[in-house]
Amino acid sequence: MSSGAGPASDAGISGGPAPRALRYLTPAEARFLDAACARLIPADDLGPGALEADVTRFIDRQLAGPYGAHARCYRHGPWAEGTPEQGWQSPLSPAQMYRAAIADLDAHCVARHRAPFALLAAQAQDTLLQALERDAVALPTVRAETFFALLWKNVQEGFFADPIHGGNRDKAGWRLIGFPGVAAADYPAAMQRLEMPYAVAPVSIDDIERGRVAVDAQGYPVRGRSNGASDRRD
Amino acid sequence: MIDEKRKPVDVVVVGMGVAGTILAKELAQSQLRVVGLERGRMVTPQQDFRLPGVHDELHWSRDTDLMQDLSRETLTFRNDARQTALPMREMGSFMLGECVGGAAVRWGAVAWRFNPWDFETRSRTLARYGPHHLAPDCTSQDWGITYDDLEPYYDQFEHLYGIGGKAGNLGGVIQPGGNPFEGPRSREFPNPPSAPTRAGALFAAGARALGYVPFPQPTAAMTRPYVNPYKLHLGECTRGGFCARHGCAMDAKATPLTAVLPALLKHDNFELRTHANVVKVDLDSDGRQATGVTYVDARGRVVQQPAELVILASYVFNNARLMLLSGIGTPYDPVTARGVVGRNYAYQAHGRAQLFFDDRTFHRFMGGGGIGTAIDEFNADNFDHAGLGFVGGAYLSVVSMGATPIRTHPVPTGTPAWGSAWKKAVAHAYDRSFPIVAQGGCQGYRTNYLDLDPTYRDAFGLPLLRMTFDWHAQEQRMSQFTTQKAAQIGRALSPAQLDVHPLRGRYSIVPYQSTHNTGGAIMGNDPATSAVNGYLQSWDVPNVFVVGASAFPQNGANNPTATVGALACRTADAIRDTYLRRPGLLT
Q1: Are the beta carbons of B509 and A129 separated by less than 8 Å?
Q2: If contacts are CB pairs under 8 Å, which of residues 192-221 in chain B contact chain A?
Q3: Tens digit of each residue's pLDDT (9 = 90 or more) over A62-87
Q4: Chain A partners of B197 at a C-beta cutoff of 8 Å?
Q5: Alpha carbon B87 to its chain's center
Q6: Which chain B residues touch A46 with a CB distance below 8 Å?
Q7: Which residues of B300-429 form beta strands (DSSP E)?
Q8: How far is A184 from chain B (nearest CA, A)?
Q9: Could you give the angle at the alpha carbon of A191 between the alpha carbons of B58 and B365, nearest 5°?
Q10: Least enclosed by CB within 10 Å: which of A45, A174, B254, B448?
Q11: Which residues are bridge partners to B22 per DSSP?
């Protein structure tokens, strides 16, 4: 565990999110991820960022499941760091990697700045993330760039995966790029009039399974043209 | 230790993918008793590929159990023999299948034939450019069969899989609208080509302006409802994306599950066994005859299946590994360059020119089945290679597979890797950018090979396969050349920015590139340099056939699946019409 902080102390951090059900992460780890998400894909005039899109929740669920355990990956030794071309060679699973790396990083921040990563100023957070990315910070347990690559990959997954996995809240990632989600039956026709924008409200698996969007006989969503925020879930 | 010995059968087929299902079907038609062994599970499209769940990108690209369970078995990898090979712990550069239907269940449905030159790489290169044009360590060779030998079987496969396209060469007569560089076809495609996408139409205009001949890329996503020669019905593709890596809810993508299996399962003399993990081909005492195979079943029992004929039709890696584990053929030795099993492992060399526009959108999320527009001027030996320092080439294409959002966020070179500037660039470029891909071939080299790893083992205690592979200067030059050609076409379209990404650096097993691995049990006319003959029959154990892209002596630029299917059709014919009458080495 990276911290003795429990749910009770989580609510006491000013500006932190409300207490939430976590499946794997400790509250301190979740605070780290909230802060990292806010820097990696920030909220701005284009819309919500990874924090607002619940990417921490996505990562928490991933780490609690088979992915976090590297359940379908080869996990036998002997272990060696290998070359970059040889890929992931850590004896740690992704879940173990997050636990070790966040503890390392928060300890590093406390030693340097007398505060954990989540409480640093945005600029200091960016500086540290850049150092991780360049492998320019020595951590006691894990290799910085290995953890950064994992974190950044998972943050993008959480921002763009179907909301059924717990992130991409309100389909924020899809709205950002104009991705319609589950495909509709009118694509062949729409391909013939490509000069027309295909502006539709995105539809997620979650929308269909919860009955928020009707489907046709083949199972394709039936949707209208985009009309702003009326299709937001909440 | 054998827990159970099953009743002998005529034929056992190992692996129920593209090759195995066709071979089992064609041989079951001849009243032979055929058993198909598949180490993965059964897949039922109506159950497994339902909307909306089949459009879950995260699940289908990373977590699906239709991919090989690497916790049980993976391979090890190193760039060169000085390094220590380490396990491929996560799926990356390629996606291995593990289910009835194999990797093809999730294929991109791009269904090219190889160019005639691909089958005669060495002899045609020597004839046109002389003895010094091939790099000294290049071990590319002729296939032992020509394009003309395979043409009837390409035709057979294309009709089974309902390929849509436009012929460019019918019986030697060039046809408008098709690929003028392709080998002669005996007849037109069974289905019409797909309509061009907006990006494809733009690419075609740019290519024409430079004097090239664009044409629709052949696709195995149905361009109209289709009934194949096995009387199986396939639906019309709705271009909803989520194609490569995904199953199809519309039965519109030809795969072993949709184009072969339902017809195969109707044969009473065929039996499919899933969760049957073959660990060895059993040989008689002098190693000259196979007696069957041994597999581990879902209960952990070691089961022996005696058979008159053994067909290895699993993926490239497992075909080579089973030969090595069983002692069929002489293992390749990179020091002496003798031996054949594991020789000439190859891949494909991809480059691209990425175009970014400010004022155009392309509906990149639509598509599927590899619908696209291509040119073939810089493939194979379709251009003069004198002085270029490489052989082979690439086809250039603009393809719409359906740009799924986890995978697809192109940004211009120079964009920060994360943060607000990255976010802004992704938002702008997602639907305003596309690549012109230069998908190139890969030659065989003395130093690129497969063997058994000395250290790492699978869940049964057997050695993992070890891959030793790196790009050579020839592939780097080829990619540099063809990617620049792609960039020239791109510039003619006046994009706001164009980034050129030729193949660079060492081969890495991390980023996805393609599941177009080849070699290891290569075919040829000379037992000193090939593991199987022109009918994919083991030189050493003639009642073993090893079918798949494992037989490619080196890799062409085009997607391999149709060639795998055609080879399977040809081997089935040879077994049925010749081998069964007089078992022994086919000549």
Answers
A1: no
A2: 195, 197-198
A3: 999 999 999 999 999 999 999 999 99
A4: 191, 194
A5: 22
A6: 423-424, 427
A7: 302-312, 349-356, 367-375, 394-401
A8: 7
A9: 15
A10: A45
A11: none
Region B392-413: mean pLDDT is 96
Encoding tokens for residue B372?
Answer: 């696209």
3-class secondary-structure state, position A53: coil
Cα of B223 to nearest chain A Cα, Å: 11
- Report the 10 Å Cβ neighbour count for B301: 12
Given a cut of 80, whether residue A8 has pLDDT beyond it is: no
Six-digit token pair at A28? 């301190």
Rounded to whole angstroms, the Cα distance separating B224 from B36 reads: 31
Confidence of residue A196 (pLDDT cuts 50, 70, 90): confident
Question: Is residue A75 less than 8 Å (CB to CB) from chain B?
Answer: yes
Question: Would you tell me the crossing angle of helices A27-40 and A122-133 to the nearest 10 degrees?
Answer: 90
Quick check: A5 pLDDT over 70?
no
Q: How many CB pairs under 8 A join A and B?
A: 180
Q: What domains can be seen in chain B, in order of their start residue?
A: 4-70+96-579 (3.50.50.60)
Question: Bridge partners of B501?
Answer: B352
Contact indicator for A87, A93 with CB cutoff of 8 Å: no
List CB contacts (< 8 A) between A83 and chain B. 79, 83
Residue A234 in this model has a pLDDT that exceeds 70: no
Question: Quick one: A12 exposed, middle or buried, by C-beta within 10 A (0-12, 13-18, 19+)?
Answer: exposed
Region of residue B446 (left: phi > 0; alpha: psi -120 to 50; beta: else): alpha
Partners of B75 in the beta sheet? B465
